[in-house]
Design brief:
This protein folds into 3 domains: about 150 residues, Herpes Virus-1, CATH 3.30.40; about 130 residues, no CATH class; about 120 residues, Sandwich (Immunoglobulin-like). Helices cover about 45% and strands about 20% of the residues.
Length: about 500
């Protein structure tokens, strides 16, 4: 039994009874709507112009009552546990001696005062406390109840309006615990719905346990999602390091031939890899931080509700009902089954011919340009006529909502000169790319999204004279003629 008593003290007097701001045992604990508690003086230092306060744990802002921090509801459950632990510590040196006369051995315990008394002092104690009926138990009964059901040995709760009367009812209309005088004077049965405190506590305890189980499931889901994100971060780190090594090795392999180009191009690729890595890591870390905060909020709310359900009496439980239910409902609405916001795919592919490609290679990733496609690319265009191509960016806009990107295109003429192609957003998920063909021959059009060529780019378009047929083999001649006739071209 002594071991159970010690375990109870350790469990209640751990971090549960310590303020995270001053790191000391609570002094007049105040309960915020997010179910986090702090000393009144500690909260008073955090108040901004006396109107708002931000929870130091979950960073949730709260509007203060007109009376300021003083108007925030007390956490009666924690305050009473602090007082119980304090009294137990004060009397632990000689727990068997009467705390009234300090001469005889104690045989009874007063639940309200938290003192151990001998029979004579217990009798006198009851007579002196005539305004309130103190509940005295034998030490044997007290120790047994404390180990088996701690809620039974919690001190009684008295009405805030009638200090000599214990609360006996719970008013559903006002969400308040009340005494029989309040029920008769301020909460008439014709206008208010209320029930006996034990009945209300039994009903809410059952509902609260169900909510605790649901929050526990959500907490596990958030923890699992966090593990997946952490694994992705680790995989991304390994991928980054591996691809960094590949790029550096390729730089070293070709550095003797074209040192300057290799260094410039290599540094560019490394920076591109690093930028991509940093961008994704920032997004993943932000998601990880959010999941950690969410997991912490759910864990704290669950632990607080479990301790209140296990150790709190009916009055304490029902006094906290409004705040706990609000927080539980808010937590249960949060989505916890989340996939990582980024992928870990990054791959560097070296060029087969450095001299021809003019680059060490290409860094592939889940990029914006990879989600775009070209449509309506003409095979032939007559000289001095428009070259018109359609760029489909609907998939990009669907995947990357509200993402800003640039579209551009360059036309390389047969004489190797370049010309900028006009790009126009049609507003329907497509861009129109237009220019005029000014000379006969093969023209190459390269389309860029955020300065990166899209898949399938560049495309070759043959510009033919105003009159006459392009040179085609006999197998395709009939097909080409039929196609041109459909466009109204005369022969």
């Amino acid at each position: 039994m002594a071991e159970k008593h010690s375990t109870f003290l350790e469990e209640m007097d751990g971090n549960f009874l310590s303020c995270v701001i001053c790191l000391e045992r609570y002094k007049n604990a105040k309960l915020l709507q997010c179910l986090h508690s702090f000393c009144e003086l500690c909260l008073d230092k955090l108040a901004v112009e006396g109107k708002t306060i931000t929870c130091p744990i979950c960073r949730r802002p709260h509007q203060l009552p007109d009376s300021g921090v003083t108007g925030i509801g007390d956490n009666s459950f924690i305050n009473e546990q602090v007082e119980i632990v304090r009294k137990r510590e004060a009397s632990s040196a000689d727990a068997r001696m009467c705390e009234g006369c300090a001469q005889a051995e104690s045989v009874k315990h007063c639940l309200e005062c938290g003192v151990n008394l001998c029979n004579i002092c217990a009798t006198a104690h009851s007579r002196l406390r005539i305004l309130r009926s103190h509940h005295l138990m034998t030490l044997k009964e007290y120790e047994a109840a404390k180990s088996d059901d701690p809620a039974l040995v919690q001190p009684p709760v008295y009405c805030t309006s009638h200090s000599d009367d214990q609360v006996e009812f719970y008013c559903d209309t006002c969400n308040l615990v009340i005494c029989y005088k309040c029920a008769a004077l301020d909460h008439p049965i014709t206008e208010h719905q209320y029930k006996r405190l034990k009945d209300a506590a039994a009903e809410y305890s059952k509902d609260l346990k169900e909510e605790i189980d649901k929050v526990k499931v959500k907490e596990i889901e958030a923890s699992d999602s966090k593990a997946v994100v952490m694994e992705t971060v680790k995989s991304l780190e390994n991928c980054y390091q591996a691809e960094e090594v590949k790029i550096k090795l390729h730089i070293q392999k070709t550095i003797d031939d074209v040192t300057r180009m290799i260094r410039e191009n290599g540094d560019k690729l490394l920076q591109e890899l690093k930028d991509e890595y940093n961008k994704r890591k920032v997004n993943l870390n932000a998601q990880l931080k959010e999941l950690e905060c969410l997991e912490s909020d759910m864990s704290y709310a669950r632990e607080y509700a479990e301790k209140l359900t296990h150790y709190g009496n009916a009055a304490q439980l029902m006094s906290a009902k409004k705040g706990i239910s609000s927080q539980m409902e808010e937590l249960l609405r949060v989505e916890t089954k989340l996939d990582p916001t980024e992928t870990d795919y990054m791959e560097f592919k070296p060029s087969d011919d450095l001299c021809q490609a003019k680059t060490l290679g290409v860094l592939y990733s889940s990029d914006l340009a990879d989600r775009c496609t070209l449509e309506n690319v003409p095979e032939y265009v007559r000289v001095n006529e428009n070259i018109s191509i359609t760029l489909d960016v609907a998939t990009l806009q669907k995947v990357h909502k509200q993402c800003e990107f640039e579209v551009g295109a360059v036309l390389m003429k047969p004489d190797k000169s370049q010309e900028t192609v006009t790009a126009t957003d049609n507003g329907d998920g497509r861009w129109s790319l237009k220019t005029v063909a000014k000379m006969v021959g093969n023209h190459e059009t390269t389309v860029f999204v955020s300065k990166k060529p899209i898949p399938g780019s560049p495309v070759t378009i043959k510009v033919i004279p105003q009159k006459g047929l392009p040179f085609v083999n006999l197998a395709r001649k009939g097909q080409v003629m039929e196609s041109w006739m459909s466009l109204g071209v005369s022969w």
